[in-house]
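Thread: Newbie trying to understand structure tokens

Hi all, I'm a second-year student working on a class project, and my supervisor (Dr. K.) asked me to get a predicted structure for one chain before our next meeting. I've only ever worked with sequences, so writing a 3D structure as a token string is new to me. If someone could post the tokens and maybe explain what I'm looking at, I'd be very grateful. Here's the chain:
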Amino acid sequence: MTWRLPAHVTFTETDTGAVLLDNRRGRYWQTNDTAAIVLKCLMAEGGLESAVAVLRERYPDAADRAADDVQQMIEKLAAAKLVTR
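---
Reply by user tm_fold:
Sure, no problem. This is what the structure looks like when written as tokens:
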């Protein structure tokens, strides 16, 4: 399943992660580096599987949690209307 950022959401990478700006509501969210990786995978249309693979490679000690962590993050972003299918 493909997720993407809606046209009204702006993504800006920072030194410690990323910032998402919802231009419709004038609200922003700051993410950590891990969430920024997931969002970059989504924007590259790599999907959840790509994000999980990147996280497993980058954080091998937490590889068994990667899929659940990515799914939970996507659910939270979707609830905030920062990502859509």
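A couple of things are worth pointing out once you decode it. The chain has a mean pLDDT of 93. The radius of gyration is 12 Å. Feel free to ask follow-ups in this thread.
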